Amino acid sequence: MNLDVITLLFKASAMEDEVIMNKCLQLIDENTTDTFASDSFTELCADVLKTVVSRDTLGVTAETDVWEACIKWAAAECQRQGKEVSLFIIHEPEHFSPFPTCQVS
User: Which among 21, 44, 46, 99 could bridge 12 via Cys, Cβ 3.0 to 4.6 Å?
Assistant: First the structure.
């Protein structure tokens, strides 16, 4: 994509511009693979990431595509925070888990 829709989505979110946010999310739905592969995807804040990966209209062929994108983001977030790379970062209170937590009984 020529336009960095992730950067635009982040700015629209900060300005609370629902019209631009919705248009960005539609573009992401139509170009999910390119979006997940972009460098800017790993720079998203957790709130915007949650908005993106929790959509049921993403153009992915499997849920593993979303999971792999979250792993990529988590690794980048760990680096930003100077922590050892761990998927537990997405379970920290200021972050999220895009998938339900299973409990063993």
Answer: 21
Q: What is the DSSP letter of 14?
A: H
Cα Rg of the chain, angstroms? 14
User: What pLDDT does residue 26 have?
Assistant: 96
pTM of the predicted model, to two decimals?
0.76
Question: Are 35 and 5 a contacting pair, CB within 8 Å?
Answer: yes
Q: Rounded to a whole number, what is the distance in angstroms from the first to the last CA of the chain?
A: 46
Place of tokens 């020529």: 2
Taking only the tens place, the pLDDT of each residue in 67-78 is 889 888 888 888
Cβ-contact 56, 23 below 8 angstroms: no
State how far the Cα of 81 lies from the Cα of 51, in Å rounded to an integer.
22
